[in-house]
């Protein structure tokens, strides 16, 4: 398959690129910096908001690895996601978003989210709410083949690649050890599996270590 990864120098994006390449897929990486820190041989310097329909034409899937941490940049989660959705509107190209865990639901009625819990870390609240807002806006898009993939709450950059994960839905899920944890490497496996299988169009799914 032909896969584009935007915000490609991010740590999760780099793992997704490595996983996709290891399976023989063709990967084009887009990043706003001149340096290519990914394994992709085809790297194109371009900011997400400067991407055009022509840039992303002909891809089977586009992976959005955008990340922001400062309060003034958090609104870019919505801006960048909607820009990519506009570009891909009406096409067969899938849009896969690297999401967060904070917006996962804690009850079957979907009235309480993880970031509503009293013990949710205050430092992560603005980030989680910005990502949740972006997801809510994405849910309104019926013109794009999007999939939003939330990691477990403990998302480990340097965690081991076990090759196993539990595919879950909108609700916060624990594994058999009562843990909500996954490594970037295992998350990347789940992402590329979803690209290959394409089972969750216009849905949010989540993954946790098996």
TrEMBL record:
Pfam family, one: NAD_binding_10
Coiled-coil residues: none
CDD domains in the record: BVR-B_like_SDR_a
Gene3D superfamilies: NAD(P)-binding Rossmann-like Domain
GO molecular function: oxidoreductase activity, acting on the CH-NH group of donors, NAD or NADP as acceptor
Domain NAD(P)-binding intervals: 8-193
SUPFAM superfamilies documented for this protein: NAD(P)-binding Rossmann-fold domains (SSF51735)
Entries under InterPro entries matching the protein: NAD(P)-bd_dom (IPR016040), NAD(P)-bd_dom_sf (IPR036291), Polyketide_Oxido-like (IPR051606)
PANTHER family named in the record: FLAVIN REDUCTASE (NADPH)
Name of the molecule in the record: NAD(P)-binding domain-containing protein
Species name: Mitsuokella multacida DSM 20544
Source taxonomy: Bacteria, Bacillati, Bacillota, Negativicutes, Selenomonadales
